[in-house]
Amino acid sequence: MRIEIESIGKRFGAAQVLTDVDLYVPSGELVALLGPSGSGKTTLLRVIAGLESADGGRVLFDGEDVTERHVGERGVGFVFQHYALFRHMTVTENVAFGLRVRPRRERIADSEIRARVAELLELVQLSAYANRYPSQLSGGQRQRIALARALAVRPRVLLLDEPFGALDAQVRVELRRWLRRLHDEIHVTSVFVTHDQEEALEVADRVVVMNQGRVEQVGSPDDIYHHPATPFVYRFLGNVNLFGARLEGGRPRLTGETLAARDAAPGAGACAYVRPHRLDLSRQPRGGDALEATVAHVHAAGPVVRIEVSDRAQRPVRIELSHERFRELRVKSGDRVWVVPREIHVYTD
Amino acid sequence: MSSSRSHAGVLPGFGLSLGITLTWLSLIVLLPLAALVLLAAEQPFERTLAILTDARTLAAYRLSLGGALVAALVNTVAGLLVAWVLVRYEFPGRKLVDGLIDLPFALPTAVAGIALSAVYAKNGWVGQWLEPLGVRAVYNTTGVVLAMILVSLPFAVRTVQPLIEELEPELEEAAACLGATRLQTLRRVVLPVLLPGVLTAFALCLAKSAGEYGSIIFVSSNLPGRTEIAPLLIMNRLEEFNYSAAAVVAIGMLLIAFVALLAINLLQAWTRRSQEA
Fold first, then answer.
1. Are B133 and B142 in contact (CB under 8 A)?
2. Hey, are the CB atoms on B175 and A51 less than 8 Å from each other?
3. Domains and CATH numbers, chain B
4. How far is B205 from chain A (nearest CA, A)?
5. Which of A166, A171, A273, B172 could tie A345 with a disulfide, CB 3.0–4.6 Å?
């Protein structure tokens, strides 16, 4: 089922949390709402669910206006960051809850409920835990049960609010890959909220980057990563070095000056963004865009070698090299080097 | 030396603190109770039985226990409601209301009794409006129950309040998303979680109400066999210098209180087991 959001606005007291948000979620896609805390992503998710009512605008499910409809009648499955499992019920009772509270006329037979619960527990690979209580499960298991509970009522939309936020780093990664595979199996239109760009880029079909209550950019993970529409998106998606720049005949040239984040404020002129792994080092002086610098630190433990150099103004520049390239260069702390940008992004006001 | 250390754990003084605890408990609780039993046993058993089954004694027990049951039931519901409002809603004066709840804790019970009679008596603020309706709120059993409700309310509120604070609103939201109505959410999600606390609140209100004396005697007509509570009967027997009869009535109260608390504790243990098994 497709979701359309039309000029949704929401304020809590004096704080404007969402400003004129438009969004389109195609049927069957897995969409990530990505943004820093306070960007309004969770509020937007709760507005879609009907847990929060917007001050203005409309929410449409398959073209049908559901703005005024109560959360229980929207047919949404919601997964909370802290699971929100009913702790006095067993796993089975939790999953069956949505089926058992239906009005008598619509309720399916007891045997069918049991079969459906068994099928869902199979799907989330927790059949062995049917009679346990939530307190006897690990975080990852609890979140899978919460997901099974949400899916039991066959929701038209699945909404997940920071579903991996409360889990250990390793479990997080496992569970998000599992969620991706699960989505490929069941194809229910899903929206999940996250502040972790890696998570959004790895799992989602489409990423919606939000900032201060507005949508900054919508696109495929590839798009978002390689063609960030705004400086905010560029910076939010990973580490970045900022350099002063000017346009020469439509081509950006570096001015040879390194900038701190605050210098890149709007109105400060053109600014070039370069990711650490798109910078190279050279031992010989190089013309063009190369900057002279001194190596400050070398961290070689990890999948890439991270090097920090200081330019002539003692400002830091971060560089990531492959181990092969690092062995060729053999730079160490105190060496004089030239920083060579391979790919630069320029935003002008 | 080494063996005693391994028993005591990291912190020293286990033997000393246990000794002090037991001595203190004996002096404050066990010794007076034992004296009470001795006092009651000064007379033949038939006489004890006669005092216990005397119509006046039975009426006093019925009033104290029955009134306490009603007061505890009312306060369990009202306390839950008050605690819910205090935890879940923001409104001007919330802190003040929260503080007022504790007032019956601190108030001398006589003050509570006089205040109640001032408000609910025939010429009181509320009483004058009740009178034409044919409702009398004081100087009868209603007055007794009213006083019990007043003095035991804080026990109910303060017992369930922390549990409601721990109850995440997400649980209700999750239930609503799954299609549960407000009533279903309350009955199947909220109340089961609060149940142990609600039972404790009921027990505390029952105990406090059954033992209440000071405030009740101001709002009851204190007629023997009709509106005389058990503690007052004990008092009256003492004034008649009939110490052993007073002790027997007191022992009866003790037994009733003990059985009531035991029953509620068993019930609590059972609900807890069924929740966390």
1. no
2. no
3. 45-166+195-276 (1.10.3720.10)
4. 26
5. A273
